[in-house]
Amino acid sequence: MKNIVIRDATTADLPAINDIYNAEVATGTSTWDGEPWTLEEREAWLARHGDDTTPVIVAEVNGVVRGFAYLSWYRNKSGFRFTREDSIYIDPSCRGKGLGMPLLAALIQRAQAARLHVLVAVITADNEASIRLHQRLGFEESGRLRECGYKFGHWLDVVEMSKILE
Ligand SMILES: CC(C)(COP(=O)(O)OP(=O)(O)OC[C@H]1O[C@@H](n2cnc3c(N)ncnc32)[C@H](O)[C@@H]1OP(=O)(O)O)[C@@H](O)C(=O)NCCC(=O)NCCS
User: Fold this and answer.
1) Is 153 a domain residue?
2) Is 137 a pocket residue for ligand 1 (Cβ < 6 Å)?
3) Which residues on neighbouring strands pair with residue 102, listed in sequence order?
4) Which tens digits make up the pLDDT trace of 130-159?
5) In 14, 104, 108, 141, which residue has its Cα 20 to 30 A from 68's Cα atom?
6) Ligand 1 centroid vs 99 CA: distance in angstroms?
7) What pLDDT does 52 receive?
8) Is the pLDDT of residue 166 over 90?
9) Closest ligand 1 atom to the C-alpha of 123?
């Protein structure tokens, strides 16, 4: 995929971010949300992020936002202050074309620059694309929670993957 620009998200990106995310809420198991987010909820979310340890970044292709990724606190306790959870969503029309890889790599670089120590990914076990993407960028499986999520009438396992940053 060519003409990719990765940059920090702005409020102008929030409708595109919501479109990408809400499609996954409706049709995918990568998010446990059952209801689409409103723009107001997304604005509040962006306001809670954006310091150097919780960046929100987007990937543009030919000037159109086709993916976003961000870091959030893994557990909101002092002892976990050097750990963050990553999240990444690519527009359905652009998946499997090599966009997730540079976007997640950029997010990892931001985590390293912020001197974080560990990144965690919490991935539904049937999500082969996300597991593969994280493996390719140095994450290893750290645990598996059997049937701890429920969506679309099924119990689903969750895989936790983690990467210690250099
Ligand atoms: C998971 C996701 C972010 C991956 O991004 P992507 O742009 O589709 O992935 P890429 O094209 O960069 O491919 C990354 C790697 O995953 C592999 N991959 C991509 N789609 C795959 C699929 N459906 N099944 C298996 N492997 C897949 C690619 O082959 C590549 O590995 P390789 O370099 O060894 O060949 C994207 O598919 C997505 O947004 N899915 C829905 C939301 C989601 O699952 N988010 C993650 C929540 S934990």
Assistant:
1) no
2) no
3) none
4) 999 999 999 999 999 999 999 999 999 999
5) 141
6) 8
7) 97
8) no
9) 48
Q: What angle do CA 111, 117, 119 make, to 5 degrees?
A: 65
Cβ pair 107, 52 in contact under 8 A: no
Determine the pLDDT at residue 72: 98
**Contact 7 CB / ligand 1 (< 6 Å):** no
Q: Is 160 in the pocket of ligand 1 (CB under 6 A)?
A: no
Does 50 have pLDDT greater than 90? no
- Over residues 84-132, the pLDDT tens digits come to 999 999 999 999 999 999 999 999 999 999 999 999 999 999 999 999 9
Cβ–ligand 1 distance for 148 under 6 Å, the answer no
- Residue 142 in any domain: the answer is no
Q: Residue 19 sits in a domain of what CATH number?
A: 3.40.630.30
124 contacts: CB under 8 Å, gap ≥ 6: 29, 30, 130, 149, 156, 157, 158, 159
- CA 78 – ligand 1 centroid, Å: 32
For residue 132 and ligand 1, the question of a CB distance below 6 A is answered with yes
10 phi and psi angles, rounded to 5 deg: -125, 170
Nearest CA owner, ligand 1 atom 2: 130
User: What's the CA-to-centroid distance between 30 and ligand 1, angstroms?
Assistant: 12
Residue 157 maps to a domain = no
